[in-house]
């Protein structure tokens, strides 16, 4: 933090410069990490609340830096987004996710895999064609791949975003509005989007049993979603009490540490087998 006076300012500048240098170095490393295949695909299960069955997983990227160890996903995703260079990472993730979804099908599993898209991806004119190419390469039924998009990504340029969503829907993929509740989209805007579902942000779900305000928001979001014909996913389900409350409210799908932390994709089938037996 900057202390008042000249000395404080100098210190602040030094810290800022150091931080900028560190971030620049990390960004450089990220692109060689993508090239050298140092990123890892993690999967976090999604479970149907009524059936208790695993219906799929969210694909989450992990980066194990050879010197710094595991880098915070939030940090390097945000950095890549701010630098406007998320595309190589998105492409890496899509390749990894389609290949993973293909092996699941070979093993006879029907799980859907959800891929996160960033704002920048939505405005990338090559995105939809690349996805179409992946479907023809891997032969996966379109509804087995989902995309999660945040409200803030859509709000950057709503008209252009809507166009991309419409083109994606023509491929028959499933679209989910991510982090619902953290943005400012109006009901009118939501209705215009070709969404299949919404994910209620964990900042409302995790504290909902102890905080009346959060519970009201979760409850009305579930109703809103259902009234619009959408599937509702709750993320950040961390305990039994929250599961029971969500079940009572008719929430469709749950995701969170109560069910499992994200795990290396290779561990997913064994985990799902154990879940089914439990
Ligand atoms: P997100 O899309 O909202 O993903 C959910 C995040 O919540 C994940 O963090 C997950 O590990 C965490 N989480 C899951 N269950 C719980 C829970 O019960 N409690 C709590 N406190 N947290 C839980 P993660 O993996 O660190 O990812 C952070 C964010 O980074 C993601 O948030 C997403 O916005 C972004 N991200 C991750 N992978 C990708 C990717 O491949 N592409 C893009 N564009 N973004 C990604
Ligand atoms: Ca997500
Ligand atoms: Ca989310
Ligand atoms: Ca989030």
UniProtKB/TrEMBL annotation:
Transmembrane segments: none annotated. It comes from Pseudoduganella namucuonensis. The chain holds residues 360 to 637 of 639 of the full protein. It comes from the Bacteria. Residues 23-276 form the EAL domain. Coiled coil: none annotated. This is Diguanylate cyclase (GGDEF) domain-containing protein.
């Amino acid at each position: 933090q900057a202390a008042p006076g000249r000395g404080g300012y100098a210190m602040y500048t030094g810290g800022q410069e150091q931080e900028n240098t560190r971030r620049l170095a990390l960004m450089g490393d990220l692109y060689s990490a993508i090239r050298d295949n140092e990123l890892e695909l993690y999967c976090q299960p999604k479970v149907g609340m009524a059936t208790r069955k695993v219906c799929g997983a969210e694909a989450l990227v992990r980066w194990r830096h050879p010197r710094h160890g595991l880098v915070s996903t939030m940090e390097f995703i945000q950095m890549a987004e701010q630098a406007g260079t998320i595309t190589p990472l998105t492409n890496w993730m899509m390749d990894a996710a389609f290949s993973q979804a293909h092996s699941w099908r070979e093993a006879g599993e029907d799980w859907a895999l959800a891929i996160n898209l960033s704002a920048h991806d939505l405005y990338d004119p090559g995105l939809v064609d690349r996805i179409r190419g992946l479907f023809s390469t891997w032969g996966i039924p379109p509804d087995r791949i989902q995309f999660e998009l945040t409200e803030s990504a859509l709000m950057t340029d709503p008209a252009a975003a809507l166009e991309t969503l419409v083109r994606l829907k023509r491929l028959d993929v499933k679209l989910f509005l991510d982090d619902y509740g953290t943005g400012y989209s109006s009901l009118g805007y939501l209705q215009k989007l070709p969404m299949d579902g919404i994910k209620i942000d964990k900042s409302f779900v995790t504290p909902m049993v102890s905080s009346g305000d959060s519970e009201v928001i979760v409850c009305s979001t579930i109703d809103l979603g259902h009234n619009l014909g959408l599937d509702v996913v709750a993320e950040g389900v961390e305990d039994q009490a929250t599961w029971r409350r969500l079940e009572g409210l008719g929430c469709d799908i749950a995701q969170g540490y109560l069910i499992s932390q994200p795990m290396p994709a290779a561990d997913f089938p064994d985990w799902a087998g154990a879940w089914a037996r439990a």
